[in-house]
Amino acid sequence: MTWIDTHCHLDAAEFADQADEVARRAEALQVGMIVIPAVERANFSTVRNLAHAHANCSYALGIHPIFVPQAQEADLLFLRESVEAAMADPRFVAIGEIGLDYFVPLLTESAMRAKQEHFYAEQLKIARDFDLPVLLHVRRAQDQILKQLRRIKVPGGIAHAFNGSFQQAQIFIDLGFKLGFGGAMTFTRSLQIRRLASELPIESIVLETDAPDISPAWLHPEKNSPEQLPRIGDVLAELRSMALPDIARITSDNARTVMPRLVALS
C-alpha cells in the first residue's frame, strides 16, 4: 500500500534543513511519491534538486499567484525555457503551482487581478504547448479559473485544495481534472468539503498535504508534513466507507492518470 502526495512544498522555509529527513520519514510510512511544486523563479532549482535527492520526490515548475506581484514578464520566458529543458528530466511532472487568488487583499486590487490573470493565462499556454498537466491554486476564483481553462485547453491537472460547488467540481472533471483533498477534510466542521469528498466520484479524487500548510485536525496549528498523508487517507476511507488499501490504490492511480509522467517513477 503506497500513497502519492500530489502537493507538498517540501522546499518551504518551515522545513529548513529537515526536508531530507521529512522525505525519508514519509517514505518509511509508504508515501511513495511527493510532488513538489515551485512557486517562483527563485525556487525552480531548489525543487528540482530536492526531487533528485529522493526516490520518492518529483517536481513541477510554475509561478504562484501570491508571487505574481514581484514577478516580471521575463520570468514567464524563463519558465518556458526551464520547462523545455526539464522535459528530458523524468522527475519533472507538471506546471505548477499556478492559478488565481482573490482572497489576499493585495491581490484583489484591479491592477493586480489583471496581472494575476495574465500570468495564469500565459502559464496555461506553456502547459498546452508542452502537453503538461497543471497544478492549480484556486482561492475564491473558481469561475475565473474555469473560464480560462475553457479558452486555453490543457491536458488536465489538479484543482488543489478543492473547495468549490458540486457543479464546479463537475466542470473541472469534464475538463480532465482531478480534485485535491487534504487536511481541511479532516475537520468535522468542514461540512461542504467532507460532503464533496464523500460524494464525488472516487476516480476524481487525489490526496495532498500542501505541507507545511493546511495541517489536519490532529496536528493543527503545528506545521503539516507529507508523513500525515496516510492518516488523511484514513479519514477519506471513513467518509466513503471504503477499505484503506483501496483508497491508497485508487487515489494513487488517479494521480498517475492526471500526471502521466509519474508512471515511470511510482
TrEMBL record:
A divalent metal cation 1 binds at H7, H9, E97, D210. Signal peptide: none annotated. A divalent metal cation 2 binds at H137, H160. Keywords: Hydrolase, Metal-binding. CDD domains: TatD_DNAse. PROSITE patterns: TATD_2, TATD_3. The keyword Metal-binding applies. This is Deoxyribonuclease.
